Backbone:
C-alpha cells in the first residue's frame, strides 16, 4: 500500500472534491452537491485508513514519505511524511470531515455547494499541515486553511460575525508573521534549507533559540489557544455555524499544539527547557482560571468554548513536562477532545436548530421531550468532565499522573479540573436538560432524527472505544515520542 | 481456566442485563426488563457463591484481563484480584443487589421509568463488582467513578423534581472533591512505585516506609503519610465522612431501593473497602491512621446526633448510615481492618433491611415519609414491623445479633488502640452507642407503636420545615388505613433479616479472630497492637455475647431504648420541652451544623463570584478591552493620522516630495 502517495491523496482528494462540488453551482443542485461532498469526504477518509493499518509502530521516524522539488531556486520542496505524532490527526481530520458534511445536510439551505466545498478544501489543507515536512509548505497550508474558516464564519455565521472574524485576524496575523521571520532565520542558519527535519538537527545558541522559541510560542499559543491570547475563540465559536465550530474545536485547535511538537521542542530544545516554566504556568492558568470562567457562562457555546481552552491547557502542560506519559497523555487528550468537543458543539447545534437560542436560561426540562438526545448529551457531558471509560478521562489521567512525578503542586492545580470540569459540565446539563418543561418552545421540541442519531452514535462509540481501550492509540505514538524525548534531552548549544 | 471465565461472568452478567433493559427501555415490556436484569444479578450471585467456595478452598487469583494502555515505562491493565476480601465483597454486593432487584418490582410498580430504573441498578452492580474485583488502582478508580455516575443518575431519577436534580449534582461534585485527593494519591503511588498493580505496590511498600518527599520549601514529608491521606480523601468523599458527608442525606431524593443498595449497603462502603485493601500502605503511616480515626470518630458521633431530630423516615436511616460509616472508619484508623470489613458486611444486611423496610412503610403510607404522621403501624404491616424490629435491634448492638459482634469489636479494638486520637475515638464510639439506640428506637416507636396519627386531613408537616424534601407526598386520605406490601417487597425483608440475625455470630470467629484475611489485610501488630490485644480477650462468639451483659455498651444501648420509649411513648411533652429549652442546640442540629449553608455560600457562591470576576475583569476587561480592542484602536488611530497624508491632491504629494528631496540633499551635502 505504501507505494501509493497516500498523504497526497489525503490532501488532494478533499480539495479536488471541493472544487467539483463548487461546479454544481446554485442551490438548485443542492442535493447533488451534498452527495458529491459526502462522496469526497468518505473517499478522503478511506485513503487515510491504510496510514494506520500500514503504520510501523516500531519506527519513530517519518513514514509514507513523499519528496518532490517545488521551488528549486529556494530549495523549497513538496515534502510529506507522518510519524506517530501526526498520523492520527490526519485520520481524525478526515473522519471529522464526514461528520461535518452530514451535520450540515439539512441544516444548511443557503449556498450549499459553497458550504460543503469550504469544508472539503479546509480538510485537505489541514491534512497538509499535519503532513508537511517543509517549512514553507507548512506555512502555506497553515495560512491557507484560515481562508475557508473565515468564509464559513463570515458567510454562514451569526449576527456579530464581523467582530469575531476581525478579532481572529488580528490575533493570528500577529503570530504568523513572527513565525515566518523565525523560519527565515532558520533558512539562513541552516545554509539554505527549509526542511523541518534539517532544522531539528541544526545547532543553535541559547539566545537565538530563545527568540525562535518565543516566536513559535506566540504563533502557536494563539492557535491553541493559550491564556491570555484565547479571547478570540469564544467569539469565533459563538458566531460560527455548527459545522465550523466542530472543525475549529476538533481540528483547528490541534494545529497550534501540533506545532509545539513539530517545531518548538525539537528545534529549540534548550530554550524549551529554559522556558518550560512559563508554558506550564500559562497552561495551569488555562486549567484553573478558564475553569472558573466557564462556570459562569450563560451561553452554551461560550461555555463549551471555554471548556475547550481548559482542556487544551492539559495538552500544553503535558508537552512541557518532558516525559513519555505526559506527552502521550497530551496527544490522547487532543484526539479525545476532537471527539468530545465536536460532539458537544453538535449537541448544542441540535438544540439551536430547533430553538434558535444558545442561552441556557431559555432551556430546561429538555429530557421530557428529547429523551434520546438527553441520554447521548449526558454521555458527552460526562466525557467532558473526564469520566473514566470515556476518552475524556484518559488524557487527563495520564497528564495528572505524570504531573505528580514532575511536581506535586502542578498536579494539585491540574487536578482541580476534576472538580471544575464536572461543575461546569453538569451544572449546564442540569439547567438545560433536567427539570420540568420550562416553556412552550421546549414542549414543542422533537427528538433527534436518524441523521443526528447516527452522528452522535458514531461519536459516542469513538468516545467509549478510546476510554475502554486506548492502547491502539498510544501504541503508535511510543516510538516517535521516545525519539522526540531523546532528541530534546540533548543540548544544541555548541 | 474455568474459574477465570466465571470471574469474567460475574461482572458481565449484570452489564448485559443493564444493556438489555437500558438500550431497549422504550420498546421492551416491563417483564422483559426485570427478568433480564434479575437473571443477570442472580447468575452473578450464584457465581459469586461458587467463587467464594473456591477461595475458601484456598484458590486465589491475580491476573490480567487485558492491557488497557502502555505509555512510557508504565503499563495499565484491567484485571482481577480474587481473594477473601474480594469474595466477601462480591457476596455482599450481589446478594443485596439481588434483594433490591426483586424489591424494586413492587416499589417501582407505578413508575413510568420502570425499565430505566432496572437498567441503572444492574449497571451499578456491574460497576461495583469491577471496583471490588480490581487488581490495580486504575481499575479501582474506574469502578469508583462509575458507581458515582450511577449514583448521580439514580439520585436524579425523578428528574423533574428540583430537589432531586440539585441533590444529584451536589453528590457528584462533592465526590469529585474526594476524587481530587484520590487521583493525587494514585499519582504518588505511580510516581514512586512505578506501577499501579496492587501486588507490586504492596510488595515494595516497606522499602518506602521512611521515604520522604519535598512538598513545600525544605520541609520533608513522609511519602506514605501524604499518599495515604490523599487516598483517604477519596474515601472521605465516597464513604461520606465529615466534612465531605453533605451529599449523603440529600441523596435520599432517589427512590428508596437505591438508598438501600447504593447509599447504605455497597457504594458508600467503597471507601472502607479501599482503605482495607491498601492496608499495607496505611500501616506504614501512624499519622495517616490518626487522621483516619479522628475523622471517623467525628462522623460517628456528630452525624448520630442529627439522626435524633429528623422526621423524614429515610433521613433518620441516612444519618444512621453516616454514623455507622464513621464506626467503620474508626476501625480502620485503629488498624482493625478486618473488623471494619466485618462491620461493613453486617451493616450491609441490616441497613439494607432498614431502608427497604422504610420503603415498605412508605408504600403502606402512600408516599408519606413523615414519621410524625405514622404510629401504630405494627397492626397493619406485621412483616414490615417484625423485620424492622430485627434490623433496629441488630443496629443498636443487641447481644448475639449481627451488629453487636461487629460494633462491639470496633469499640474493643479502639479501646486498645494507642495511636493519637484513639482516646477521643473511644469516647465517640461509646457515646455513639447510646445515640444510635435512641434515634433508632425513636423512629421505631413513632412508626410502629402508639397513637395512629395517619389519615388526618392535614399531614401535620408545616410547609417551611427544612426536612420536607420529600415532595411527592400524597399520604393517606382521612379514614384510609395503611396496608401490608406485596410479597416481592416483604420477601427481601425476610431474606435480609436472616443474615442480620446470624451473620455476626457466624462471622466473627473466622473473619476477625481467624485466618480469613491472612495475607490479604496487613497489620503491623507491633506498631498497632489494638486488634491483637482485643483478640487476647476473645474466647469465641458465645462467650462474647454473654460477656456483653456486663459491659458499658450494652447498658448504654439499653438506656437509649428506654429513654426513647419514655420520651416518645410516655411523655411526648418532654422532648418538646427540651427542644424549647435548648433552642440553640436544636437550631444547630436543624441546620446540620451549617455545613450546607457554608458550602453553598463559600464554595458554590465563591466559585461563581470568582468566575464572574475573572471573566468580566480578566477576559472582557483587561485582555479584550485593553489589549485586543486597545491595539485595534491604536492601529485605527495610526491609520487615521497617516490618512491625513493621503489627501488625493497632487500638489500635496509634490510638496512632500520636494521637502524630502531637500532633506536628502542636505544630508548628502553635509556628508560630502
Residues:
Amino acid at each position: 500500500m505504501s507505494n501509493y502517495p497516500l498523504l497526497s491523496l489525503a490532501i488532494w482528494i478533499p480539495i479536488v472534491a471541493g472544487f467539483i462540488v463548487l461546479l454544481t453551482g446554485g442551490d438548485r443542485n443542492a442535493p447533488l452537491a451534498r452527495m458529491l461532498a459526502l462522496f469526497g469526504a468518505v473517499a478522503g477518509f478511506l485513503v487515510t485508513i491504510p496510514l494506520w493499518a500500514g503504520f510501523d509502530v516500531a519506527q519513530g521516524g517519518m513514514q509514507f514519505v513523499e519528496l518532490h522539488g517545488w521551488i528549486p531556486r529556494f530549495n523549497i520542496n513538496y515534502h510529506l511524511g507522518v510519524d506517530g505524532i501526526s498520523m492520527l490527526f490526519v485520520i481524525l481530520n478526515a473522519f471529522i470531515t464526514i461528520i461535518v458534511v452530514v451535520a450540515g445536510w439539512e441544516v444548511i439551505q443557503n449556498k450549499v455547494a459553497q458550504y460543503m466545498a469550504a469544508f472539503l478544501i479546509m480538510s485537505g489543507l489541514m491534512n497538509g499541515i499535519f503532513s508537511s515536512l517543509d517549512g514553507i509548505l507548512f506555512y502555506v497550508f497553515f495560512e491557507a486553511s484560515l481562508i475557508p474558516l473565515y468564509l464559513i464564519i463570515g458567510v454562514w455565521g451569526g449576527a456579530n460575525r464581523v467582530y469575531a472574524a476581525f478579532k481572529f485576524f488580528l490575533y493570528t496575523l500577529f503570530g504568523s508573521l513572527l513565525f515566518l521571520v523565525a523560519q527565515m532565520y532558520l533558512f539562513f542558519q541552516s545554509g539554505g534549507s527549509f526542511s523541518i527535519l534539517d532544522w531539528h538537527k541544526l545547532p543553535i545558541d541559547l539566545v537565538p533559540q530563545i527568540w525562535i522559541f518565543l516566536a513559535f510560542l506566540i504563533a502557536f499559543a494563539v492557535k491553541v489557544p493559550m491564556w491570555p491570547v484565547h479571547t478570540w475563540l469564544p467569539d469565533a465559536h459563538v458566531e460560527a455555524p455548527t459545522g465550523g465550530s466542530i472543525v475549529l474545536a476538533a481540528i483547528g485547535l490541534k494545529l497550534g499544539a501540533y506545532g509545539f511538537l513539530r517545531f518548538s521542542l525539537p528545534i529549540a530544545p534548550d530554550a524549551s527547557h529554559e522556558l518550560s516554566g512559563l508554558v506550564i504556568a500559562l497552561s495551569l492558568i488555562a486549567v484553573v482560571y478558564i475553569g472558573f470562567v466557564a462556570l459562569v457562562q450563560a451561553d452554551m457555546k461560550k461555555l463549551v468554548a471555554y471548556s475547550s481552552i481548559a482542556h487544551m491547557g492539559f495538552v500544553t502542560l503535558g508537552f512541557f513536562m518532558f516525559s513519555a506519559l505526559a506527552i502521550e497523555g497530551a496527544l490522547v487528550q487532543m484526539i479525545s477532545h476532537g471527539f468530545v468537543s465536536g460532539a458537544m458543539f453538535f449537541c448544542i447545534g441540535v438544540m439551536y436548530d430547533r430553538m434558535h437560542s444558545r442561552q441556557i436560561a431559555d432551556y430546561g426540562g429538555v429530557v421530557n421531550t428529547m429523551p434520546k438526545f438527553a441520554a447521548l448529551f449526558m454521555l458527552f457531558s460526562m466525557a467532558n468532565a473526564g469520566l473514566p471509560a470515556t476518552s475524556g478521562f484518559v488524557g487527563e489521567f495520564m497528564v495528572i499522573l505524570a504531573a505528580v512525578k514532575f511536581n506535586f503542586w502542578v498536579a494539585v492545580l491540574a487536578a482541580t479540573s476534576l472538580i471544575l470540569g464536572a461543575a461546569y459540565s453538569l451544572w449546564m446539563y442540569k439547567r438545560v436538560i433536567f427539570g420540568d418543561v420550562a416553556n412552550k418552545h421546549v414542549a414543542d421540541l422533537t427528538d433527534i432524527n436518524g441523521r443526528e442519531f447516527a452522528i452522535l452514535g458514531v461519536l459516542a462509540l469513538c468516545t467509549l472505544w478510546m476510554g475502554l481501550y486506548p492502547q491502539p492509540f498510544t501504541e503508535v505514538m511510543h516510538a516517535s515520542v521516545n525519539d522526540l524525548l531523546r532528541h530534546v534531552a540533548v543540548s544544541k548549544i555548541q | 481456566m474455568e474459574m477465570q471465565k466465571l470471574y469474567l461472568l460475574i461482572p458481565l452478567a449484570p452489564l448485559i442485563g443493564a444493556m438489555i433493559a437500558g438500550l431497549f427501555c422504550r420498546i421492551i415490556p416491563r417483564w422483559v426488563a426485570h427478568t433480564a436484569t434479575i437473571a443477570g444479578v442472580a447468575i452473578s450471585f450464584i457465581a459469586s457463591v461458587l467463587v467464594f467456595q473456591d477461595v475458601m478452598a484456598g484458590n486465589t487469583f491475580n491476573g490480567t484481563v487485558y492491557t488497557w494502555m502502555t505509555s512510557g515505562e508504565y503499563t495499565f491493565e484491567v484485571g482481577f484480584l480474587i481473594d477473601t476480601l474480594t469474595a466477601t465483597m462480591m457476596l455482599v454486593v450481589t446478594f443485596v443487589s439481588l434483594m433490591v432487584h426483586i424489591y424494586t418490582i413492587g416499589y417501582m410498580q407505578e413508575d413510568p421509568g420502570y425499565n430505566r430504573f432496572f437498567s441503572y441498578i444492574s449497571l451499578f452492580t456491574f460497576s461495583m463488582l469491577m471496583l471490588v474485583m480490581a487488581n490495580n488502582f486504575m481499575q479501582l478508580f474506574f469502578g469508583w467513578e462509575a458507581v458515582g455516575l450511577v449514583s448521580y443518575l439514580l439520585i436524579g431519577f425523578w428528574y423533574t423534581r428540583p430537589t432531586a436534580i440539585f441533590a444529584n449534582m451536589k453528590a457528584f461534585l462533592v465526590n469529585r472533591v474526594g476524587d481530587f485527593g484520590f487521583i493525587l494519591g494514585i499519582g504518588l503511588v505511580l510516581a514512586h512505585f512505578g506501577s499501579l498493580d496492587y501486588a507490586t505496590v504492596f510488595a515494595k511498600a516497606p522499602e518506602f516506609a521512611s521515604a520522604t518527599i519535598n512538598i513545600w520549601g525544605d520541609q520533608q514529608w513522609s511519602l506514605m503519610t501524604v499518599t495515604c491521606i490523599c487516598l483517604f480523601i477519596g474515601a472521605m468523599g465516597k464513604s461520606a465522612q465529615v466534612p465531605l458527608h453533605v451529599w449523603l442525606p440529600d441523596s435520599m431524593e432517589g427512590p428508596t431501593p437505591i438508598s438501600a443498595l447504593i447509599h447504605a449497603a455497597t457504594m458508600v462502603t467503597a471507601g472502607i473497602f479501599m482503605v482495607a485493601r491498601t492496608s499495607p500502605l496505611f500501616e506504614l503511616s501512624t499519622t495517616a491512621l490518626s487522621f483516619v480515626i479522628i475523622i471517623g470518630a467525628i462522623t460517628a458521633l456528630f452525624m448520630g446526633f442529627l439522626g435524633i431530630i429528623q422526621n423524614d423516615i429515610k433521613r433518620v436511616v441516612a444519618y444512621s448510615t453516616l454514623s455507622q460509616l464513621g464506626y467503620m472508619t474508626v476501625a480502620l484508623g485503629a488498624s482493625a481492618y478486618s473488623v471494619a470489613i466485618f462491620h461493613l458486611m453486617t451493616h450491609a444486611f441490616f441497613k439494607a433491611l432498614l431502608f427497604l423496610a422504610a420503603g415498605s412503610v412508605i408504600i403502606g403510607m402512600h408516599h408519606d415519609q413523615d414519621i410524625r404522621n405514622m404510629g401504630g403501624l405494627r397492626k397493619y404491616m406485621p412483616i414490615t414491623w417484625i423485620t424492622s424490629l430485627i434490623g433496629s435491634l441488630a443496629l443498636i448492638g443487641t447481644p448475639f445479633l449481627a451488629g453487636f459482634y461487629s460494633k462491639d469489636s470496633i469499640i474493643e479494638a479502639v479501646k486498645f488502640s494507642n495511636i493519637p486520637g484513639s482516646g477521643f475515638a473511644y469516647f465517640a464510639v461509646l457515646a455513639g452507642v447510646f445515640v444510635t439506640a435512641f434515634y433508632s428506637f425513636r423512629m421505631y416507636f413513632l412508626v410502629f407503636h402508639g397513637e395512629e396519627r395517619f389519615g388526618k386531613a392535614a399531614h401535620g408537616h408545616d410547609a417551611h420545615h427544612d426536612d420536607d424534601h420529600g415532595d411527592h407526598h400524597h399520604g393517606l386520605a382521612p379514614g384510609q388505613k395503611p396496608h401490608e406490601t406485596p410479597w416481592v417487597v416483604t420477601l427481601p425483608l425476610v431474606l435480609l433479616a436472616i443474615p442480620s440475625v446470624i451473620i455476626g455470630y457466624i462471622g466473627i470467629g473466622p473473619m476477625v479472630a481467624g485466618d480469613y484475611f491472612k495475607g490479604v489485610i496487613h497489620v503491623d501488630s507491633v506498631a498497632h497492637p489494638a486488634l491483637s490485644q482485643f483478640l487476647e480477650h476473645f474466647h469465641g462468639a458465645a462467650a462474647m455475647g454473654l460477656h456483653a451483659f456486663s459491659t458499658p455498651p450494652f447498658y448504654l444501648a439499653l438506656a437509649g431504648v428506654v429513654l426513647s420509649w419514655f420520651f416518645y411513648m410516655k411523655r411526648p411533652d418532654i422532648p418538646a420541652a427540651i427542644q424549647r429549652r435548648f433552642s440553640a442546640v436544636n437550631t444547630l442540629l436543624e441546620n446540620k451544623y451549617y455545613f450546607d449553608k457554608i458550602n453553598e455560600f463559600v464554595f458554590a457562591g465563591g466559585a461563581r463570584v470568582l468566575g464572574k470576576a475573572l471573566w468580566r475583569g480578566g477576559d472582557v476587561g483587561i485582555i479584550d478591552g485593553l489589549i485586543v480592542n486597545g491595539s485595534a484602536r491604536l492601529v485605527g488611530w495610526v491609520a487615521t493620522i497617516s490618512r491625513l497624508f493621503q489627501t488625493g491632491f497632487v500638489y500635496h504629494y509634490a510638496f512632500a516630495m520636494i521637502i524630502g528631496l531637500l532633506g536628502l540633499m542636505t544630508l548628502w551635502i553635509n556628508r560630502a
Summary: Residues 81 and 131 of chain A are 5 Å apart (CA to CA).
